[in-house]
Specification:
single chain; 126 residues; alpha+beta; 2 domains; three-stranded antiparallel beta sheet; two-stranded antiparallel sheet; rod-shaped
Length: 126
């Protein structure tokens, strides 16, 4: 028994001159028909319909939203490291102000720490 257009049939039909064949799910489909990730074959067997884009635990959708990929916890290690480097680089203008009192502390701090703001903004994008 095969499934075609919400009905059980004993053999796959010929529709508009196309012989439908059974697939691995016991559905009658056009020969060579396959659907991309997140889509399922329509009951009529002549197209794909949106099914779902849900990944299993420990997986997430990739950027193109067409496959599940493993979740990587790289962000957890990146932020403390960024804060440590920001603190170290913030000390440089402060020491410079102590050694050369006529240097501009505020503008130097902004210039040094803007590098880390840029890195943080890029991390939000990717």
């Amino acid at each position: 028994m095969y499934m075609y257009d919400y009905k059980c049939v004993t053999e796959c039909p010929i529709v508009d001159g196309e012989q439908y064949v059974s697939n691995y799910q016991k559905k009658c489909v056009i020969k060579g028909m396959s659907c991309p990730f997140g889509y399922d074959i329509e009951p009529s067997g002549n197209g794909c319909s949106f099914k779902r884009l849900v990944c299993e635990t420990g997986m997430r959708l990739n950027y193109a939203k067409n496959a599940c990929i493993p979740i990587v916890d790289e962000d957890m290690n990146f932020m403390p490291l960024l804060l440590i480097f920001a603190f170290i680089f913030a000390i440089i203008p402060i020491v410079s102000k102590i050694k050369a009192p006529d240097s501009f502390l505020t503008s130097n701090l902004i210039a040094v720490l803007s590098i880390f703001e840029t890195i943080g903004m890029l991390r939000l994008l990717y």
